[in-house]
Every structure is written in structure tokens, then in C-alpha cells.
Write a structure and sequence with these properties.
Order of helices and strands: HHEEEHEHHHH
CATH architecture: Orthogonal Bundle
Bound molecules: zinc ion
Distance between the termini: 17 Å
InterPro entries: IrrE_HExxH, Rad_response_metalloprotease
Helix content: 40-55%
Protein name: ImmA/IrrE family metallo-endopeptidase
Structural class: alpha+beta
Number of domains: 1
Largest sheet: 4 strands, mixed
């Protein structure tokens, strides 16, 4: 699957549940998909994990991380559930912090890139962003604008900046 395919899958989920405004209710999406979410204090370098236990998808989110980061983690794990359900069977999938900065040579990294693209589009959907901006371009140097957008979409400022790099 391409990165665009991952983004499209996120848009399909938003459409399915009639979500047209920010902040996107990622907890509700998890519930609708039948995902059981557990917030727990993990080591700082662990952001989240997902696996299938007795046929139920269980996602763990590091409760010690900032709330907006927890939302991104949950959206990332939902990405694995929607896109890569097969990798959650049998083994626990563990996500560590700063995957983005790693070299993406191995096949597993492609899955992480796809899950991040899914999460980014789920939390910062193209059409809601465009409607919010009203045709303007985002000035990434404008810290106030990035902070305002991040607050509205309940994502970290770095996630919002990364969203516009593509
Ligand atoms: Zn992952």
C-alpha cells in the first residue's frame, strides 16, 4: 500500500463515522472499531503497543506522555488495526518514540510510515484543515499560527509542522 493509500484509509474511517470537525474524536473511533484502549505508564521511550488477544484488538497508550501525543499514538495504533491487522496476530506490536528519524530501509519501517501517515490524516484531515485555513497557506515559521492550529486539532506542534512537510 502506498502512503496515499494509508491517508485515504484514514479519510474513509472519518467518513464512515461522520466526522467533519476538529478535534477528531479518536477515542470514539477506537470504540467504534471495537478496539479496547488501555492507558498505562510505560517507559518513556515506548509510545504505544497493539495486539489481538482472544479476537479483541487491545491497544496500549503511554499515559505518561502529553495528552496530544497520546492522541497521536492512539491514531497510529488504529492505523495498524485498519491497515495491518495481520501483524497484530500472535505478537505484540510495540512502538517506540522517534520512529520518524530512523532510516526506513526495513519492511517494518514502511508499516510505521504508513501508520504515521494514517494517524496524521486522521487527526489533521485535509478537508478540515483546508476549511480552517480558508485557502491560505500555512506559514510554518509563524509559531503562533502553528500553535493555534495544533490547539484546534489537539495535536502537538511538531505533528502539525510535520503534516505540512508531506
Ligand atoms: Zn507502529
Amino acid at each position: 500500500m502506498s502512503i496515499d493509500g494509508a491517508r485515504q484509509a484514514a479519510r474513509d474511517v472519518l467518513k464512515q463515522y461522520g466526522i467533519t470537525t476538529a478535534p477528531v474524536p479518536v477515542d470514539r473511533i477506537a470504540r467504534e472499531l471495537g478496539v479496547r484502549v488501555q492507558f498505562a505508564p510505560f517507559d518513556n521511550e515506548l509510545s504505544g503497543m497493539a495486539h489481538i488477544r482472544d479476537g479483541v484488538v487491545v491497544v496500549g497508550v503511554n499515559s505518561l506522555h502529553a495528552p496530544n501525543r497520546q492522541r497521536f499514538t492512539l491514531a497510529h495504533e488504529i492505523g495498524h488495526v485498519v491497515l495491518h491487522r495481520h501483524i497484530l496476530e500472535g505478537a505484540v506490536h510495540v512502538d517506540r518514540v522517534l520512529l520518524r528519524d530512523r532510516n526506513s530501509s526495513a519492511g517494518t519501517d514502511l508499516l510505521e510510515i504508513q501508520a504515521n501517515a494514517f494517524a496524521s490524516e486522521l487527526l489533521m484531515p485535509t478537508d478540515i484543515l483546508e476549511a480552517t485555513l480558508g485557502g491560505r497557506q500555512v506559514v510554518l515559521d509563524d509559531d503562533v499560527e502553528v500553535a493555534t492550529l495544533a490547539k484546534k486539532f489537539r495535536v502537538s506542534e511538531s505533528a502539525m509542522r510535520f503534516r505540512f512537510f508531506k
